[in-house]
Specification:
Layout lengths: L4 H6 L5 H21 L5 H4 L6 E3 L5 E4 L5 E2 L9 H11 L11 H9 L11 H9 L8 H18 L2 H11 L6 E2 L1 H9 L8 H9 L4 H4 L5 H17 L5 H9 L14 H13 L2 H6 L3 E3 L4 H17 L10 E4 L6 E5 L25 H10 L15 E3 L2 E3 L59
Parallel strand pairs: 1-5, 3-4
Antiparallel strand pairs: 1-2, 6-7, 8-9
Length: 452
């Protein structure tokens, strides 16, 4: 018998068996399609995170703004209560459905007019972000493709892999993608260390992060947190007592921090270029942990502001601060300029080569004291010129005056420091050669051999 197109069009089921064969055949065809149709591996579709630079406590100092803040982590490094809160908020039957939830779809259809609600599962939300970036596709067709992709993804990927990818890809506001970046941005802690109240707050953000993180969205965010806690209580994750305690907990959401220590990221990338191949840096995905102390950094920046205000009459326009731990050399704070947005603010004065000036005086005086000199030892203050690699150097005092001998005589009497730089405001590098020949125990003056 020849099966023609016209015959297919005119065919109608004639009995219960034929009526049953239609949905069964459709389900079999769908199952074959889900299992056999090729699908790009999930790992190849995930967004490569930009480089993130962290301070000593894990706070974000700088990030690649083009890709947002992304700190990928494995599922075992996420707090179990945060995992449970996410499932309760977004997809309570996540562990049992095949990628789409028929019950949620039925609920969404029946409550479409009275109480509109979404029916997308965690898997559908994930494939929407990593497989369906094209927003020009009509909504009904996009929803069908979303459901088919979700079924195909779960046929080839475990539930834990899907959940881990979702927790790394979901957007939580403040430029943070993934729970690790979100936990650091909102609470300054790792995703493994959030408590119940914080977990419920974070789990509720992906629904509408721009609303909940807006200046007027605090009340809505707390309502959403309460809803998530209610879902966790209804599914048996939390007892009523723990849920109520989390609702009443003092939830301290950190204010969105301004960019700190803008000169430090440039130093970090200089170090990366010295130690890593260029292709590794260009690929991104690096998480750089620094020794910067956020508290000391804020104090250093505030100190620069205060000191410049006090020196305003002296026309001091910028300043730099470097704080090191003398025990191990760790960099704790760094301010490269007073105003990074100023015309010359991008210049890191903490590293820019320049005359050390009076910064060397304490070290020079320490050498002199070791050699037996005292505060009463006279030093001539007369014009002097020194030959340097960059040409003649003639130091001057701040007021451009010379006082000759500080003992009051203007006869030009030479002192034992005659071979030092004779200006009161400069230090002579040749004085460091004192250490070449130890002082005689019988004399308080340096030996002639020290000056050769």
């Amino acid at each position: 018998m020849t099966l023609t197109l016209e015959a297919v069009r005119r065919w109608r089921p004639r009995g219960p068996v034929e009526w049953l064969a239609v949905p069964v055949g459709a389900l079999i065809a769908l199952a074959v399609f889900v299992l056999v149709a090729p699908l790009a591996p999930l790992e190849s579709r995930l967004t490569t995170p930009g480089t993130v630079i962290l301070d000593a406590s894990g706070g974000v100092i700088d990030r690649d703004v083009a890709a947002g803040t992304r700190i990928p982590i494995t599922l075992d490094r996420v707090s179990p209560v945060l995992v449970a809160a996410t499932i309760a908020a977004e997809d309570q039957r996540f562990r049992s459905h095949p990628g789409v939830d028929p019950l949620a779809m039925l609920r969404a259809v029946t409550t479409l007019r009275s109480d509109p609600s979404g029916a997308s599962t965690i898997t559908q939300q994930l494939v929407r972000g990593v497989y369906l970036q094209d927003q020009s596709i009509p909504l009904p067709l996009r929803k069908v493709r979303e459901a088919l992709l979700a079924l195909r993804l779960e046929a080839h990927t475990s539930k834990d892999q899907v959940l881990e990818a979702y927790l790394n890809e979901a957007y939580y506001g403040r430029g943070a993608y993934g729970v690790e970046a979100a936990a650091r941005a909102y609470f300054g802690v790792a995703a493994a260390d959030v408590d119940v109240a914080q977990a419920a707050f974070l789990a509720g953000l992906p629904r509408s992060p721009s609303v909940y993180d807006s200046p007027d969205g605090a009340a809505s965010a707390r309502e959403r947190q309460s809803y998530v806690l209610g879902r966790m209580e209804a599914t048996g994750v939390l007892s009523p007592e723990r849920a109520e305690a989390a609702r009443e907990a003092d939830l301290r959401v950190a204010p969105e921090a301004p960019r700190r220590s803008p000169h430090l990221p440039a130093m970090v990338f200089d170090e990366l270029r010295r130690h890593l191949p260029p292709e590794v840096i260009a690929a991104g995905g690096l998480v750089v942990e620094t020794t910067l102390d956020a508290g000391l950094q804020r104090e250093a920046e505030a100190s620069v502001t205060r000191r410049l205000a006090a020196l305003q009459q002296q026309q001091a326009g910028s300043a730099a601060v470097v704080v090191l731990d003398p025990r191990d050399g760790r960099l704790l704070a760094l301010v490269g300029s007073a105003d990074y947005a100023a015309k010359a603010g991008q210049i890191n004065m903490a590293l820019e080569p320049r005359q050390p000036g009076s910064a060397l005086k304490p070290l020079l005086y320490a050498v002199a004291l070791e050699r037996g000199y005292t505060a009463a030892s006279p030093v001539l203050d007369v014009p002097s010129t020194f030959a340097t690699d960059g040409g003649p150097y003639t130091p001057v005092n701040y007021d451009l005056r010379f006082r000759r001998c500080p003992c009051g005589s203007r006869s030009g009497r030479r002192s034992t420091f005659r071979r030092c730089a004779r200006s009161m405001t400069s230090a002579c590098p040749r004085c460091w050669r004192w250490r070449i020949a130890p002082a005689s125990p019988r004399s308080k003056r340096p030996r002639r051999t020290a000056w050769r």
